[in-house]
Design goal:
Helix content: 10-25%
Strand content: 35-45%
Shape: globular
Distance between the termini: 45 Å
Number of strands: 8
Radius of gyration: 17 Å
Order of helices and strands: EHEEEEHEEEH
Length: 162
Amino acid sequence: MNVHASPLMQGNDSSLQAVLGALAPHDDKALVFEYAGREVQAGYHVTEVKAGSFVTLDCGGNPDAWQETILQVEDIPAAEGTSFMTVGKFRAILAQVDKKLRLDADARLTLEVSRPDEAMQVYDVAGIDLEADRAIVHLGERPAICKPRHRAAQAAASACCA
């Protein structure tokens, strides 16, 4: 493992387009996901790609709507003699899915990750670092939030700094 990594992306925009765009120039690098303090095993498998459209009502009675692309990743060991999927292969998989499902490039990107004997967890892309031979996608946990309280806190923070 190379100790010097350069940040490519830091969670400001975790849309499908932003993540794939950031990775695009690095097709030959191994693609590694880091979550819950560990890296996926080299045999990880993208088991499903979901294109979701959500219409919701929050606890304050406020409607919301958004598009989301959800990648389900099974964290499993590699077969003998194999290594991590490359960025190019990952992008090719999503290009094939896009031909059949028409993925929304601006959709929020969500990853559902687990090992076979663990409960699946939901993550957002928190950042991407580059090493000489690897692109490391750091996943951050997604907490539940009360949207009305969150909006009120954001408005109070911006009002005090105005």
